[in-house]
Amino acid sequence: MQLMLFALFLLFYMVILGGNLLILLMVFSDPRLHTPMYFFLSNLSFVDIAYSSATAPKMIADFVSEKKIISYWGCVTQMFTFHFFGCTEIFVLTVMAFDRYAAICQPLRYANIMSTTACTLLASLSWLGGLAHSFVQTLLTFQLPFCSSQIIDHYFCDVHPVLKLACADTTLVNMLVIANSGLISLGCFLILLASYTVILVSLRKQSAEGRRKALSTCGSHFTVVTSFFVPCIFIYLRPSTTFPLDKAVSVFYTTITPMLNPLIYTLRNKDVKNAMNRVWNHKVSLKEKRKA
Questions:
Q1: Apex CA 194: angle with CA 191 and CA 200, to 5°?
Q2: 281: domain CATH number?
Q3: Residues in CB range of 26: below 8 A, 6 or more apart
Q4: Full domain range(s) for residue 240
Q5: Predicted model pTM
Q6: Spatial distance between the Cα atoms of 249 and 245, rounded to a whole number of angstroms
Q7: How many domains does the chain have?
Q8: Positive or negative torsion for Cα 26, 90, 159, 132
Q9: How far is CA 44 from CA 104, 121, 234, in A?
Q10: What is the pLDDT of residue 107?
Q11: DSSP classification of residue 180
Q12: Over the stretch 72-106, which tens digit does the pLDDT of each residue have?
């Protein structure tokens, strides 16, 4: 069973790396994709690679390791990077929703609203917000004294499983974790729902072709948002209690969602597919010229 899981999750991880690197390649190599939407999509793809890399390689290695161990500082590093890139992804997805709102509801002012300076600022704030969140989360957890028990009932170092090893009262830390992680996830998700509600209402004034294109783009984004936010809210917007479902839910938002993101955005996005065709045709033409 462990060998089967090793092969399965290794395949998932290769799809995550390949799919997201392909999106980055398309966005950077095709000038037609140098727009705010694809700027944030490239940020999302980079975050997905780093986010899944915080947990997946160790989990995959553990499937074929007799001793599944991690050092103290390895655990600290894993928790910090996991929450850093995870929270950054939350903010990037929220900014992408704002970009879609500006494009659909404010088309005449879109170029001014989502200028290069504004896009850079929003992306920078997303990364800085993720860094601040992760620093607070990791500091709150590892400032506690830990007991002799060293068995983490999880496949990576997350807040709730690590807090169970603490020798001190964790009530205050649990409340702060809910305020830090849970409320960020819930708050951003509510903002996203509100923005999509406004977009859907405004689409009534659009043409049939405009509605179809907007719904296709927003549908892709909302699918990604739902698959990421709902598991995060389930895990972090509650006290430090564990359920049998927790590990399966964690696998979903740490491995499955980063794998689905490039598939959703490439299969449902005509611009990305056209860019892939142009790059492929360019490579084919170069090979033919070399042969000639």
A1: 140
A2: 1.20.1070.10
A3: 33, 272, 275, 276, 279
A4: 2-291
A5: 0.87
A6: 6
A7: 1
A8: positive
A9: 21, 15, 22
A10: 81
A11: I
A12: 999 999 999 999 999 999 999 999 888 888 888 88
